[in-house]
Each structure stands twice: as C-alpha cells, then as structure tokens.
User: What shape does this take?
Amino acid sequence: MMHFRTLMTMKHETISKGVPLEQAKAPPVVSLDRVSRRFGAVSALDQVSLTIEKGEILGLIGRSGAGKSTLIRCLNGLERPDEGAIRVDGQDIARLSDRDLQPFRRKIGVVFQHFNLLSAKTVIDNVALPLKIAGVPKAERTQRARDLLDLVGLSDKEKAYPAALSGGQKQRVGIARALSAKPALLLSDEATSALDPETTQSILELMRDINRDLGLTILLITHEMDVVRRIAHRVAVIDRGRIVEEGPVVSVFARPAAEITRSLLHAVRPQLPDFLGAQLSPEGAGPALFSVDAIGADAGIDFAARLGEALGRPVTLVHGGIDHIGDRAIGRFFFRAEAGREALLAASRGLFPADTIHVEFLGHEPRHS
Assistant: This one.
C-alpha cells in the first residue's frame, strides 16, 4: 500500500489530508466555460459553465437525455463543443489536435457502468492494459497493477479472469484500471447502477477512501441522488442541457430550488403523504399543513413546541425525519396547526434563523364535521 501511495504522491502532492477544499490554492482540475453542443436542432449542452476543484467529489445528476453523456464525451475529447472552452488539468481540449488528444485522455480515468473488462485477459492484465498501450515497461506496469489491486482489495485475484468475479469485484478491477495512468480526474459514469445496494455501498466507500487518501478529483455522473448523498461534496443538476442548480450537497438536499431537483430528490427526502396532499387547498377553514426544512444543529429543534407557543394553539407532527449527509444533519418535517397562512409564517419568522430553517405553507385541510 505504501508503495502505491508513493507512486501517486507526485501527482497529488498539492493536496494535504485534512486541509479544507476552500483553502486549496490550486486551479480547478476541470473548468467548463459556456460550453454548447448541438446535434441538428437539438441542443445537448446549452451554455454550461462548471468547475471541479482539485480534490473534490462533484456529483453531476440528471435524468436520461439531460446532457450527461454529451458532457462526458466533451470532457474526454470524443466530442468537440460548438462554443465555449473546456480545460482539464490546465489544457484546453478544443485546442488539441487529434494526435494530442490520445495522450491527453490518460489524464481522465473512467469507471464504466458495465465494467468494460476484456474477458480473455486476466485481472492484472486488464489493470495494466492502459500502461501497456502507453509503452510503460512490463516490469513497471506489472508492479503498478499489483499495487492498484492491493489498493482495491483484490491482490489475490490477479490471475483470475473476469468471468470468475462478482459484479463488485469487476468494478473494483475497473477502478484499479482507471487509476493506472495516474489520472488528474476520475470519471465515474453510472458506475454503481448495475450493482446491488450492498455492493454499491462498498464501491462508494472505496471511491471516498481514494479521494480522501490520494486527493484524487472525482466526477460522479449519475441519475441516483442517493449516490450523490453518500460521498459527494458538491452537486450540479443538469436538465435539458443546462445546469439548473448547484451547490454543497447538504444545502441542495435540504432546500432544493429547481423543480427537477425536487423531483429527483423525491425518493430520498420525506414527502407529504399523498392522501394528505390530495385534499389540500390554498384557502379554507380547516387546519393548515406546513413543512419545515432545517440544516445542522437546528434540525433537532422542537418545532411543534416553539411554534405552538408562538401561535397560542397546538401544533402536531404529521410526518418527517432527520437524515445526515457527512457529519451534518438535515431535517424535513410536516406539521398541522389551527392557523392561517400569514399568522403561521409571521410566527416562524420571529423564531427561526432564515439561513438554516425554511418554513413553507402547503395548504388547508378540509374541515371535517
């Protein structure tokens, strides 16, 4: 393990363990500046601007057809943008000739959804293949491949063939292969979509360890918000070729601004039960339902007691809970109160800090006789 980290140190020496990302002075590993790519009348990417800092894990999430695949192909030089600039590790891709693109692509290690291993080659030969193509001497590439297999926990599988491996083991081989050329960026292209939940967790933990221990920059391309929640530092949401929202994962999950983000988060955030939502109306004499979104220590506040005291009437919890992203709590709760919209919002404004707690009126329930 120490030998492998020594090999990688020259590439990642500017990142120190425990140093917050915001203190790092290095330029972004990836910078997209108003990038557009069209296919006939279809705008696959529309003025996309995005940066990925050195040592950061960025999750790029969107539905099928949102533009994720085109962005990947532009990043590794398989597509040329119609407008804008793409820089990876300081190099402007648009200015590279076709001849220069091949060595450039070694700067980007890619982990694929379906592994893309060569079935006729052993595990160690699969890992060493990019080094063989690059002309690295056999002894050196074999040693590096062994160090990488040790890193991903497969040192006992070097002579096995892919057919003898589980899905999780195949993906670990894929990660080792992606790291073989000491890339500036590791691109995970739906790498866990074909895996079961337990195996997904182990692969994400491996990526998090690689990021933490080696300072490697990672771009997660996914349609699964849960993948982003588990290991990403920051998230960008792409929809119809445009970045519609981005920010720290905890902030976006706690208070999503874009409708597409709220839709993508539907499965991982508490939602108002459908039978209650179906009977709400903006006006009415019945009880009001409202939501509370909170970040950090404020997620543990007894909202019902505080609002009840301010309103002078009972407030009851309907649904909700607290989750954690990293070491920060995020809470989402739904409450019922005998109050009007204005009285409810006025009471909350005086009680809670607006930067960490957001109260939203949802509607009135019908008054049942």
In short: The first helix runs from residue 2 to 12.
